[in-house]
Amino acid sequence: MRRSRITFVLAGAAAAALVVSGCGGNGGGGTTGKAPAYNAGITGVVNPSDHKGGTAAYQLSSTPDSMDPGNTYYAFMWNFSRVYARALTSYQQAPGKAGLKLVPDLAAELGKSSDNGKTWTYHIRPGLKFSDGTPITTKDVKYAIERSNYAPEVMSNGPTYFNAYLVNNTPKYQGPYKDKTGDLKSIQTPDDTTLVFHLNQPFADFDYLVSSPQTAPVPKAKDTGSNYVKNVISSGSYMFQSYQDGKGATLVKNPQWSASSDPLRKQLPDKITVQFNIAQTTVDQNLIAGNSTLDIAGAGIAAQSQAAALSNSSQKGHIDDAQSGALAYVAISNAVKPFDNVHCRKAVEYAVDKVSAQTATGGNIHGDIATTILPPTVSGHVKYDPYQTPGSKGANSPEGLAAAKKELGLCGHQGGFSTNLSARSDRPNEIAIAQAVQASLKKVGINVGIQQYPSGKYFTDSAGAPAFVHSHGLGLMMTAWAADWPDGYGFLQQITDGRAIKASGNSNLSELNDPAGNKMLDVAIGNTDAAARTKAWGDIDKAAMAQAPLVPLLYRKDPLYRPDQATNVFVTEAYGMYDYLNVGVK
């Protein structure tokens, strides 16, 4: 998923002790109890509490791609949407590796597999209701999947796994907006609590797949397509009181929610507010001053803020430098000249100074130098460096400069060329990295113009819209990626499989489409041997990198800030940021 989409943290002890920080009025330090500790939220729960009441106030430097659970693909929204949308499965509420355990959510139990992994059956909990009082049935789950996976003209964000792996109708099902009388026959609902999925091949990770918010139920009668985001009907512990596009949202307790049918949620604050389009430095300042609860983006405080916070002992104790399981990288478009030539792509691989990119964001607090697609926290990672330069200095080393120039000669551009690099305008750290990449490439004669676009529409309208990429000459695109679930397939498929390329909401920014690589993914996910699958992910990583589709920059770490008034705060390994499900306030 897109980062700032599902990630996980390289943490210490799985069975972590609870850490209690002070009860002071702001983020500068408590007045009683233990002083807050640096990285305490990685291995423990900070400020554990069942206190009810108050308002949890979140802020965001941009806008979400969407708050519609079926039309979002940012990690922070997959995390936050669980407050108001219950998927079939979810992750255990715990820091450390215990937080990677799948548990039933809307479903009463995990799925039952049959037909050699091609059929999966789920039973949802009985007696559940939407926030408007209508019963939740499996037909609502089926409809949610139909709208999110079979209507790209309306729902352009999000992955396409169900579309790819469910048996399709003959003739092909066109989705609920084009085919209002149609029915996706590969999902059966024999009764109101039973759901049966029929796949076109075995899929070993299906329980992970249905943890996506795309399985959160949507009542067909209340669906208004792209406008549903303005009136989402809740299945979770909170419901929308208001939503203003570009401004924010307010959620209040859902009176139809019952703790007896939901072992994961606690429903602690009276109200949850989310403010959009607040400058990142202002978000940071409000956290430090104790004027907000959390930064919902989960991407860490900006470089301008972190140096002062880390040098202040009382503020440093409120920081968790979480290894997010995400990869920050430069995607290289195979469809924008001259990058249709692999040697031009390899020239970029050799030329980029990764140390300068790391330094631009404040050093290794924001991540370690990356050389592979799979981060070390993802199963299948193999340590190797196919485009090695001394010290990862790229064209700022004689060897890197020579290798890049050799590749430029092989692609017919010995003197270099010009191209454009996109970055998100509301992410200062990403822009700083883009400027470092720009300087590296200039060393070999590649002149780069940086084009900035807002995060909320980055994937629907610009970097994730191939026609826009081609017409605007975006040969290079800044992005970051994290696993949809914690294994190699959940990381690799949407960014390396050519069949995942979409006209809008595209995540395969490189437009890599290698039939052999696509086939490797299919074979691996259908293998019931876990060890063989793990090895396959590393092999697929190497096969993809041989085609130079992207420049791995950093295995991301994000210095997150937790004010004293926030309770039940811990970094979830499932999303690589603070878990938002049961955050409360003092």
Structure description:
Helix 12 (428-442) links the parallel strand 14 and strand 15 (446-453). Helix 10 (354-360) packs antiparallel against helix 12. Strands 13-17-12-16-14-15 form a 6-stranded mixed beta sheet. Strands 8-9-10-1-11 form a 5-stranded mixed beta sheet, with helices on one face. Strands 4-5-7-6 form a 4-stranded antiparallel beta sheet, with helices on one face. 25% of the residues lie in helices and 18% in strands. The chain has helices at residues 40-43, 75-80, 138-149, 161-165, 206-209, 280-289, 303-311, 313-316, 342-351, 354-360, 398-410, 428-442, 458-462, 466-471, 488-496, 515-525, 530-545, and strands at 55-59, 89-91, 102-104, 112-114, 119-123, 187-191, 194-198, 238-244, 248-253, 271-275, 294-295, 319-332, 367-369, 417-424, 446-453, 476-481, 550-561, 566-567, 571-572, 577-578, 584-585. The two termini are 32 Å apart. With 586 residues, the chain is an alpha+beta fold. The chain is globular, with a radius of gyration of 23 Å.
